[in-house]
Amino acid sequence: MPNIILVGPMGAGKSAVGRQLARLLHRDFFDSDAEIEHRTGVDVSFIFEKEGEAGFRRREREMIAELAGREGIVLATGGGAVVDPENRAALASSGLVVYLEASVEQQLERTRLSTNRPLLDAPDPAARLATLLQEREPLYRELAALVVPTDGRMVKEVAQEIRRWLAEHDGNH
User: Fold this and answer.
1) Domains delineated in the chain
2) Share above pLDDT 70 across residues of the chain, in percent, rounded to a whole number
């Protein structure tokens, strides 16, 4: 059974939609960032602070390789996971990739209270999000079999749209 992998920018709802989708499909759910935090015992911000982005990306690459090797899971990835070619190859070969699309405005709204977003530790978070989206969106689109807009939508609605799409395109989901 192929995995269902959610990609997209921070604040797109990958973790929340992934949890809901896993419940709807009776599958196990994994969040690559949460798994890294669980294994290391520290949050992503601490890893960035101590090891830099390169150290975090190395840990992320190892985690994605491990999780992509499983079968029948729903996987939410970190927003920057697609930047690494090894991650893109592992994700593309392990299942169906769904791009959860979110505007910079929506990302700002959804992340404004978060303290665990090291890449938003910038003088102008909106500009930072816009730059990241510009760099990463072509990679999200390249990987994705399905693109689902999330702006102004409830988690349950997005998860149900993905489930409907899966049912229409392959009765095994």
Assistant:
1) 3-159 (3.40.50.300)
2) 94
Q: At what angle do helices 125-143 and 85-94 cross, to 10 degrees?
A: 50
What b-and-e string marks burial along 85-109, b requiring 16 or more CB atoms within 10 Å of the CB? eebbebbbebbbbbbbbbbbebbbe
In this prediction, residue 101 has a pLDDT band, given cuts at 50, 70 and 90, of: very high
**H-helix or E-strand spanning residue 126:** helix 125-143
DSSP 43-98: -HHHHHHHHHHHHHHHHHHHHHHHHHTSSS-EEEPPTTGGGSHHHHHHHHHHEEEE
Tokens of 70: 């499983």
Indicate the pTM of the whole model.
0.93
